[in-house]
Every structure is written in C-alpha cells, then in structure tokens.
C-alpha cells in the first residue's frame, strides 16, 4: 500500500511539473521576452472595441489592454490586438494565440472550471435584452412569441434566450451569426423580428445604425452578464497581475486619481492607501514584479476606470449609456475595488 501511494504521488508530481504543465510566471516571462502584449478583443462593437476612421482600435476593452501594456512596458503602444469572434475566443486563449482576453466575455462557472481558463474579476456589469423596431407595438419580451430572433453564436445569449422562452412556454426561431454587424444587417433587412444580446451591445449596435431612432431596446433584463478578463489556468503570477491591474484602475477612480492629477496626488497625498496605490511606498509594485509607480503611469496614459467608461460608453458618446450598475459602489453601483494593501 505504501509503495502504491508513493507511485501515485510521483505520478501526480510528474503531471504537475512535466512539459505540458504551466509554471508560475510563464506568461509574464514570455510577454516580456517578446516585448509586446497580445490582447484578444471583439471583432467590432462600439464602446468596447471598434476601429476609428483611421483604423485605430478604440473602446473600453481596448484601453484596458493598452493600460496593461503600460503597466508592463510603460508604453501603451506595446500591444497587438487580435480581434476574435465569440465562437473561437476561448480556444485562441487556451492555445496561446493571445496572452489575455478582454472581450465582452461573461464570467460563468462552467467557463471558469471546464475550459482550462480562469475568469479574473468583473469590470463591466450587463444583462441580456432584446431590440425591436420602435413601431413594432412590442413593449415586453413575452410579446415576441413565435418571433425570429437574431443571436450571436458561441455566447451566453443563445442559452439565455432559449431558457427564457422555454420557461414562459413560448416559441421562437433563432438565426445565428458570428458578428454583431451581421445580426444588425439581418435585423434591418427584416430577416429577424428582434436581436437578443447584452444591453450594452444592443446600444452599441443601435448607435451605428443609419436611423437609431427607429429601434428600441426593451426595458427587461433576463440575465446577469458580468464581463471580465480571462487568462489561462495554471499561471498564478499572470492571473494575479491582471487581476490587480483591473482592481487598480477601479481604485484609482475611488481615490480621485485621474489622468490630469495623478502626479500631483502622488506628491501630496497623506492617505496611506493612496500612497501605496501610487507607489510612494513600493510594496504593491514589488509584489507583482512591476515598477512602484505603475498605477501612475497607467492612469496618466489611459485614465481611471470612470474616465475610460465616459470616453467610450458614457452619455456624451454615440453609445450613450449611463453608468448604472457600472457606477462605483459609493455612488450606488456595483463597481468595487478589492483593498490594495
């Protein structure tokens, strides 16, 4: 029995330390050796990731990628964007094609425990909804019985829609697409009666339509869709770095640190938590193998969370979304940075 237990322990150790096992620090070492972060993003949705008129990617997810590059290299340009459809985004991450996924990806239990990946921490809270023609005389989802509904393949929205209609004893016909623009075109061409996806993406799609006022997003929400970054399972050092980077841009907003005042706050603050955050005392950066002032550099380059949100998603943008659940917890929202100490 003792020999059997010893052999079993040796087999487990071989699996954990063999060539296929991820070792702590492997991703960070590879990124630094390459001199560039490879970030998976959406193929194109306003507010999160969309090329501008000059072909430069813009959006909340894009800025989060750029900010991570600043934390690593002090250079927002040292990032390569890899646009990925919903159906292959997790495969691309698992295979090593990208280093991190910032791509409107809901954190769910099965994704976190069955794909060889880790969901990190939410940075955007959303919910499934439906968009219909404004003159369709439809005010709630139950009135879509028998409707044809555009959906994006490989998303949680497929299951959420099916679950809702089944639970209500209603029928519908799904039409699946790879991209939002394909679903939008089908909706406008009357191939679908409604488009079902997360409300923020519906707002983004509507903002890019020729006549946005002809479309309305129904007020009901049918799911919890917390978006978070994903990394490969088994590399704790990289997981920690991305996790605390996201917390840092949220904490910067909580602490009143902006792109305009970051240097001044660093010089003048007497708040112990803010001094730690901005590297006056170096322990946070040291724990992640980053420079002490990495948060100052990030915020100066891309802003705190609120600045990024307002720039790409807020009421003054074409997407036009109020903060809502993505407001700080101190102002009635769900956004909450874990203590950085």
From TrEMBL:
<keyword id="KW-0732">Signal</keyword>
<keyword id="KW-0813">Transport</keyword>
<comment type="similarity">
    <text>Belongs to the bacterial solute-binding protein 3 family.</text>
</comment>
<feature type="signal peptide">
    <location>
        <begin position="1"/>
        <end position="24"/>
    </location>
</feature>
<dbReference type="InterPro" id="IPR051455">
    <property type="entry name" value="Bact_solute-bind_prot3"/>
</dbReference>
<feature type="domain" description="Solute-binding protein family 3/N-terminal">
    <location>
        <begin position="36"/>
        <end position="265"/>
    </location>
</feature>
<protein>
    <submittedName>
        <fullName>Amino acid ABC transporter substrate-binding protein</fullName>
    </submittedName>
</protein>
<dbReference type="InterPro" id="IPR001638">
    <property type="entry name" value="Solute-binding_3/MltF_N"/>
</dbReference>
<dbReference type="InterPro" id="IPR018313">
    <property type="entry name" value="SBP_3_CS"/>
</dbReference>
<dbReference type="GO" id="GO:0006865">
    <property type="term" value="P:amino acid transport"/>
</dbReference>
<dbReference type="Pfam" id="PF00497">
    <property type="entry name" value="SBP_bac_3"/>
</dbReference>
